[in-house]
Structures are given as structure tokens and as C-alpha cells.
Amino acid sequence: MTAATDELLRLEGLTRAYPGVIANSDVSFTIRTGEIHALLGENGAGKSTLVKMIYGLVRPDQGRMLLSGRPYAPGRPAEARRQGVAMVFQHFSLFEALTVAENVALGMETPPPLRILSGRIREVSEAYGLPLDPARHVGDLSAGERQRVEIIRCLLQDPKLLIMDEPTSVLTPQEVEILFGTLRQLAAAGTSILYISHKLEEIRSLCDEATILRRGRVVATCTPRERSAREMAELMVGASLAVPSRSPATHGAVALQVSNLSRPSPIPFGTPLREISFSLAKGEILGIAGVAGNGQDELLLALSGELRSAPGAITLNGQPIGAAGPAQRRKAGLVAAPEDRYGHAAAPDMSLTENAWLTAGARMPLSRNGFVSWGKVRDFAKAVIRDYDVRTPGPDVAARALSGGNLQKFLMGRELQQGADVIVINQPTWGVDAAAASAIRQKILDCAAAGAAVVVISQDLDELMEIADTFAVLNAGRLTAPRPIQGLDTEQIGLMMGGAHGMEEAHLAN
Amino acid sequence: MLRLEKRPNPSRFWLWFTPVLAVLLTMTAAGLLFAALGSNPFTVIRTIFWEPLAGSNASYFRAQLFIKAAPLILIAVGLAMGFRAGIWNIGAEGQYIMGAVIGASVGLAFYPTENRLIFPLMVAAGAFGGWAWAMIPAILRTRFNTNEILVSLMLVYVAQAILAKASFSFLRNPEGMGFPGSRNFSTYPAARNFDLIERSGLHWGAFTALAVAVAAYVLLTRHGIGFQIRLAGQAPRAARFHGVSPTRLIIFCLGTAGILAGMAGIFEVSGPAGQLTENFATGYGFTAIIVAFLGRLNPLGIVLAGLLMALTYVGGSLAESRLNLPAASIQVFQGMLLFFLLGVDVLTNYRIRLSRSQSKGAGA
To answer: What pTM did the predictor assign?
Structure first.
């Protein structure tokens, strides 16, 4: 086959600028028919903008695209879909109260009757090894199954190019294997796949070609199998990476004890917490893994004090705090950092100074007789901005004006700077670039070295392997018994996480 | 094509300039309305906005201005705290009435005793009346999660029924020859809310309103509770994370609004109104909602907004009587003011952009 017929999508000099930032500059590469092509880059490297241009959500300022040799300039996603380009987003757009088939029908322009559609969903799901019952409600599905709904929705359109945005962030290792099997099968049948990720090992095992973006430009194109993960990471970051250093820890007395904590979820379609027990010593970092939606948010609420429990269910340095609210817990020495930054961990429309007061007010000497000393709060916010390298004009800027990664650095700093005895963090480095993520991990290790007990809830297994001393998995609201992280391999962790969906029984024994 | 683009930070300039723009737009649109009604729009606008301040008999109208503005400001400051927190007390009118009824009852119970403590006691009783009336929606909301908008609004009509009952029976003036209405406080010095500066309209309520506005401003900007109020309104989940107890916040905000509305009621009945009659309540509690928003829910803004609203009242009735305008046209005028105010509010958080046409992007 000659290169000309082999080529599915060619991008030539795509450029797109937003006020104040150039998201993509002169991006060119090609995707061949039946190729799994990786698009690699840190947060903010311009991956999303590029993909949005291909999918017709954003128009390029300059440059052009060719699809099967013909000019391709979709004005809307519907046009892109008609021409054979489909996309699975990182965040699903599904209605929890509707069934799988109804959700699929909603995404189609001219849906067939539900009965026929259900039949086709079954056919496709069997053909590609993605088991899915079209009659089930999406609210009852796991994250992995929800992703299947999105993938099948795309496959029903018989796409020539399937774009997948960070598809594995919500999957267990076993589910990842199933997905990869499907993707390889699709590629073998001639569908091209544009695979966006920053997980390098995955890309090495799955992809044929990789285009690496940095600050909106293509910095390298390579064959991932021939490169090491470290080489690719350094291409992505443009510098050599520092690996967080940790000293062998000597753990002190028990700081946090959770015994038999069971609570219904306050979140609609949430997961109740079931008999959660663990204890955590001073200087210890407990890593809690698990697929999203297995009780992580609820566990954070229960530990932060937003969800109350029996007084004795949670003790801090021996004191029962289960019935105490968030402010009392902070005073007693427990700080928490929720996952959702805009609206939960921070008030988006308030300034960074006000957001600093949001949690630091309880512990730090920043007020007198109930009156806030805004000058001191501002100094505290400034110190966090300085120490955590937050890129912002100053502490008076509204939180929503910061990028996700920058705001996360600020919010991590806000909690870690308070000298608390126990620190609970949900997703410390979600959406943060590699350099900042490793800086945040280092700060967490430093806090533990200084004697803090830390609970890190994360879906990034590599992150937990890097910083945690003990490891547990949250699955359907239950926590496995924590185990020392040394000696655990991916296989064992995968089994602790409940394996592929449909193997739930396995974990109940734990 | 016009496009709205969200500002990264709210514009401080537009935050303060939008009310001015709204007033100008109201003047223009209302001018057209008055012209359509056959009046000279410039004369009408001048009569409403200028005559009460500097025309003939201005000193009388200025006193009227303060008399009208004081209760509006007092009530609106209380409402604004709740509105900031996302607690929608629509029933300040009822709390205002109950403040007047309870306060007047306490005062008249001592008639004709002369004692300096009677007036302060009446004010406290009025505050209690408003507070108690506001506690009904507060407790129903916190205990049974009922909607405070509906409950507080419905209680206005209950309060009006109690007011009618009071003026016809238990507070009726025994020496009033059977006419409905209480004794007149102007004939009972110990219970009278007199002007602190003779004939200025500046009675105790006016000074209380000013002091309350300043105190509320300090509370909202400098105190931890003020922060909780603002946070609860802007980001409810962040507020729970901060440690705000929704129950305590609801009780606090509704209670404060009730106390201030109740005080406005007793100041009014013992001063400008003079006696409690069936027609005592003239809608200050509802107009205060407009005043609260006109003042951007900022206590100092509310002082200005209250004065502006009082001006449209005083000037409006002046225009009605001097220029023979229908009362409804003045109400439309006041409605326009709120309409424009809420409309131009969008400029605080958004900027208007002329976007490039669709075809240009497609050609790229």
C-alpha cells in the first residue's frame, strides 16, 4: 500500500489561539488507516484543543485537515460524526435515570425504535467483547460500564476514526485489558484510533505511533514500543524529572482510628460506606485506591466532617470526633482536601484570600473575636502561592480564574501548610502537570516525615505506589484491610480492586 | 453578532455603575411611557426626581423622603443578609406587621403611664414580634425542609388578618367612638417615636436604619459569620466544607430579617403612621426586596437604594397629584427600575463582544 491511500487523517499546520494563549501552533501529523495513534502531552499542552478541532467543536485559526484525501472542516460535531469521526469523552454525558438503550438513542440524530436499537447494542457489544445489557439503568453501572455505553454509542455509527480522551482513568487494570482488546480488534478491522493519554506504559503496550505535544507544538513523533517511558516523559515535560525522595519512615502512635464506619451516601446515586475500619499512625501515608464512584467522595465527606457519624467511629489522637463538624475537626488537627475544586474545595467566585480563610481560618491565628484579619489571611495566601509555585497575578484573583492545576496547587498548599496532625486528600494531583504533581507528592512526603498521618485517596496507582506506606482499596463502599505497599504487584492490586467488572464476588471475601 | 463573554473577575466598575445605568434607562423608557400618556416626559421626570429635593416645599418632601426610606432600608438590610446566603424571605411585610402589632400592644398596655422605658420596651417587643413571625418559616424549613419562600409569603396574609383583627377589636381605641384603629401614639408621649431633629423626618427609625446598615456592612465584610453568609450563597458545598451549619444560618438570617422588619413596623406605627389601622401596611416589606437588589445586597448600597426608592415614591405621588398621572403608571415606572436593574446586572460578570462572523472560521 502506498502512503497516499493508507492515510486517513492528515493535519497540516493547525493553529488555534485563545485570548492570551496559543493552544495549538502549527500542528501537523497524520493518522493511517487502522492505526492506533497516541496523542501525548501534559495538561495544558493543547491536546484537548486539537481534538476539539478534529471533532468540530472548535475551528482552527489556520491550517487545514484532510480526511481520506478530501478537505475536512467540520463546523459541528454532528458533521464530524457524519464523516466518520467519533469521540469518547473523558467525562461521560449520560443520564443516570435512563437505560443504556435510551441514552444511546438520545445521542443519535435519527434513532431507530428502542427494540431494534437494543438488538444492535447487543450485537455490537458481543462483537467487540464489551458485555453490556441495554435495559439497565445507567445509574446502576460502574464507571467502566458507563464508558462502554459511550464506546458502543460511537461504534454504532461505524466510525473511521475513534477519538478516546483519557479512557483508562476510570478503569481497573483488568478492565483496561478488556478495553485494549476491543481497541486492537477495531484497529485490525481498519478503524483508526486517536488515543489521548499521559499514561506512558499504556501507550507503549497499545499504540503504533505517538505524537507528543508540548506548549501547543509537536515536539516529537515516535514509535512508542521503541522508546522507554522515561524518554517519552522527558519529551513531554521538556526536562528531566525528579523522582520524589522518601526516607524510611519510623511511625509513631496512632493518630487516626476509624472503626466500623457505615453511612448512607448523601450524594444521589452515591455509594454508601460499609463498615470501614483502619488505623493510621503518625508519619504514615495510607494510599486508598479504587475505581471512581466506589465511595471515595463519601469517605472524604465522612473524614472531613461534612458527613457526621457516631462520635466513636472516628477518633483523632484518641479523641472521638465522629460527631464533630468540619471546623471542629480542623481545630482538633484534621484537615481534608476534596477532589472537586470548583465549588467544593473552593468557592469559584471568591478570591484566593477568601478561599484561604475557607479552611485555614479554623486552625491558623487569622482572626480576633470572630473578626477576620484579612491582612493576615492575605499573607497566608501569598505564602501558599509562593511555596507552591501557583501561577497567578496575586491573592485577590478569583479562584475560577486559575487553571485546574494551578488552583489544585493552591488548595494543596492551603491544607498542607497548616501543620495538621492528620491530612486527608482525595485526588491530590488530578489534572496537575507532571512537574507540579511531583512537587505536590514531595510536599505530602515532607508532611509525613514531619509526623503527619496522611490518607491519600487516588485513582492513580502509580502515584500511590510512589508515596504510600500502606495500601487499601475502596470497592462498593468497603475498604480492604490495609497492606504494606512493598511487595504488592499490579496483579494483586487489580484483584483487590475487584478485578474486571463482573468479578465483584472476589472482593467480598476480603 | 453580539456575544456575552464571562469575565474572569467580576468588574468593579460595572458593579457600581450598573445601578446608575439602570436609572438612566428607566428615565428614558419611562419618559417614552409618560409621553405616550400625553404628558411632557421632561416635566414628569423632573417632578419625580427633582421637585422633592429642591422644588417648592422641599423641606416637607425631604422629611417624607426620610420617613419612607427608613423602614425600607431597615427591612432591606435584613433581607439582603438572607438573600446573600440564598435564603429567600419574601414575607418581610408580615414580619413588619407583626412587629407593629406586638410593639403597639405592649405600648398601649401601659397607657397612660409615663415612663422613659416604655418606648425602648415597645421597640424590643416589636423586634420580638418580627423575629417570632420569621421563626415560623425558619423552623419549618430546618425541621421539615419546607420552602421558606412560600411559607413566609403566605404568613403575610395571616399577619394582615391579625392586623385587621387588632384594629377592629383588641387594640381598638376605647375612646374612638367605635371607629376601627388603635389609640393614636401622637397623644401618648411616652410611646411616641418623635423626630430627633424637629420636622426633619429623622425619627429613631432613621438613625437605627443607618446604624444597622453600617453594622451589617462590617459583619458581612469583616466577620466570620458574614463570610459564612456570602459563602453559603455562592457555593453551598464549599460552605458545608467550611463548616457552615445550614440550620444555624437559616435561623440567623431569617431571625435578623424578622427583627429588623419588626423594628421597622413599631417605628412606623409609633411615629409616621401614628396609629394601627387596617390599612397600616402599605407594602414596605415587598418594596424592600427591590431595594435590597437595587443596593446590590450591599448594606451601604441599600442606604442609597432606599433613598432612591423613597424618592420615586414621594416624587411619584407628587407627579400623580400635580400632573394627574394614573397611579398605575407610577407603579409601572417602579417596575421598570427593577427590570432594568436586573437586566444590566449581567454586565458585572459578562462583557459584550462583537464576535467574528461564522463564515470566516469555516474558510480556515
So the answer is: 0.78
